[in-house]
Design brief:
It is a single chain. This protein has 234 residues and is mainly beta. The protein has 2 domains: 98 residues, Beta Barrel (OB fold (Dihydrolipoamide Acetyltransferase, E2P)); 109 residues, Beta Barrel (OB fold (Dihydrolipoamide Acetyltransferase, E2P)), CATH 2.40.50.140. It is 5% helix and 62% strand. Strands 1, 2, 3, 4, 5, 6, 7, 8, 9, 10, 11 and 12 form a 12-stranded mixed β-sheet that branches. The longest helix has 8 residues. The chain starts with 9 loop residues before the first strand and ends in an 11-residue tail after the last strand.
Length: 234
Amino acid sequence: MQMDGLPENNSVTIAGTIAEGCVFSHEVYGEGFYTFRISSERLSDKEDILPVTVSERLVDKDALRVGVQVDISGQLRSYNNYSNRKNHLVLTIFARELCILEENEEKNENQISLNGFICKPPVYRKTPFGREISDILIAVNRAYNKSDYIPCIAWGRNARYMAGLEVGSNVRVWGRIQSRVYQKKIGEATEERTAYEVSVSKIEVQGQQKPERAESAAEHMDWNGDPPEAEKQE
C-alpha cells in the first residue's frame, strides 16, 4: 500500500472510546479538520488519552461524541507550536480511515510501526530502581519534503541497543502510542503537562544512513516541551 506517494513508513492502527469530544482545529484549502481524544486501555488497567485529527470529509463530526467507540487507521504526525518564543513539538494521530463501532462491539488496539532516521543523540539513563531507558527522536519522511519527528522510548535490552546507535541511523520500530502526565516547574509554579511518545517493543536497523543535517533540523525542538532527561513512567 502506498500513502502520499511514499512507502508505508508511518502506520497507526488504534481503537478505543472517545474521551473528549470533537472541536474545530483548522482549515486547509476549504477542508475543515477537527480534533478529539481517544482512550486506549493498557494491559495494566491504565489508559492512554491520545489526540486524533480527522477531516470533515471522512466522518460527520456530530457522530464523534464522548463514549462512542471508534476504530482508526492513519499516521502519527508532528507539527510545531510556537509559543513564548519556544518551539514545541506537538503530536497527533492523523486519521485516514475511521469507523464507528457498534455499541456492543468491543475492540482495543494500539499499534504503530515507523521507518525513519535517528535525528538526535539517544539519551540513555537508569531509573532509581535500576531500570534502563533510552529516549530517541526519529524523523519519518512525509510527502512534499516534510518530516514527522516522533519521540520514542525504549526499555531494558532495547534501551541498551538503541543507546549505541548514531545520528542518521535508519531504524524501523514497532510499538504503541502512549500518553504521560508529568509536572514541570515554571518559576515558582508547577504546571501539569501531557507528553506523547511511542513505547518501543521491537527495533530493526536498516542499511541506510541519512546526512547529519537531520539532527540540525530538530536540535531546537522540545519534545512536547519536555526535556529528554525528564523522568518517565511506564
